[in-house]
Amino acid sequence: MKLAELKSEFHHLIDQIDDSEMLSQFYDVITQSLQPKNSGWQALTTQQQDILTAYEESEDESDLISLSALKSKYKECDHPCHLEL
Questions:
Q1: Residues in the chain with pLDDT < 50?
Q2: N or C: which end of the chain has fewer CB within 10 A?
Q3: Which superkingdom is the protein from (predicted)?
Q4: Is 80 inside any structural domain?
């Protein structure tokens, strides 16, 4: 496939996407692929990388734990930081 045809097909695919989340993810992938490999990521400290990773994981509800599940998990714990649960 020639470059012009490939670009045209690419635009056609994008125009067919009605899901904003999917389009956003698609945009992120393409944007990241245009940047030098891990240039921004490597500039971050380990702590900053961990925070960003945790944030990304928190956007998927299946990765989250309910408050009631946490309360039952730490119900038997006597540590002072868990007393308010």
A1: none
A2: N
A3: Bacteria
A4: no
